[in-house]
Specification:
The chain is an alpha+beta fold and about 170 residues long. The chain contains 5 helices and 5 strands, in the order E-E-H-E-E-E-H-H-H-H. The radius of gyration is 16 Å and the shape is globular. Bound molecules: FE2/S2 (inorganic) cluster (2 copies). InterPro entries: 2Fe-2S-bd, 2Fe-2S-bd_dom_sf, 2Fe-2S_ferredoxin-like_sf, 2Fe-2S_ferredoxin-type, Beta-grasp_dom_sf, Diverse_Oxidoreductases.
Length: about 170
């Protein structure tokens, strides 16, 4: 689409607990908006909703940022991986991925971390099949899947309390 022809509108939303405003083109996706706001954790890889690298939480629901129009987050609460650490301390899911060595290149990790937050909010003590099913939309080209499963199990054990889950930070 020609940018000159795009309709631009102003949106207001909360991003990692802070009120934000932005001008967005009608065709702009959420990942591109986050990049414009200097957040690079959600990565566009496939651009087709197939890999999960762009996963963020919108009103506590994991979405593919590559398929979500930025204008649709108007009035919403958006959480990205950048908002998880507090006072320089990684949150329990991030720490579990470190502790279990659940990555190699790390490109997919923010997406897995955000999806794990949604999983543990909905199923606090997931079985291994439930973890595999829930994370089936997230792909890791380094094939760190065994370590990722262990990281989710470790995060479930270390989950501080419901208030520690993304979406309730703000
Ligand atoms: S980049 Fe969005 S799902 Fe792959
Ligand atoms: S750690 Fe490299 S793609 Fe997952």
């Amino acid at each position: 689409m020609n940018d000159k022809a795009a309709v631009v509108r102003r949106i207001r939303f909360r991003l990692n607990g802070r009120q934000r405003e932005a001008q967005v083109a009608s065709h702009e996706n959420l990942v591109d908006l986050l990049v414009r706001l200097d957040l690079f954790g959600a990565r566009e890889s496939c651009g087709q909703g197939l890999c999960g690298c762009c996963t963020v939480l919108v009103d506590d629901i994991a979405v593919s940022g590559c398929l979500t129009l930025a204008q649709l987050v108007d009035g919403c609460e958006v959480h990205t991986v950048e908002g998880l650490a507090e006072k320089g301390k990684l949150d329990f899911v991030q720490q579990a991925f470190i502790d279990e060595g659940a990555f190699q290149c790390g490109f997919c990790t923010p997406g897995f971390v955000m999806m794990t937050h949604e999983l543990l909010k909905r199923i606090p003590e997931p079985s291994e099949p439930e973890i595999r099913e829930y994370l089936s939309g997230n792909l890791c080209r380094c094939a760190a899947y065994p370590e990722i499963i262990r990281a989710v199990q470790t995060a479930a054990r270390n989950r501080p309390d419901p208030a520690g889950v993304a979406g309730e930070h703000a």
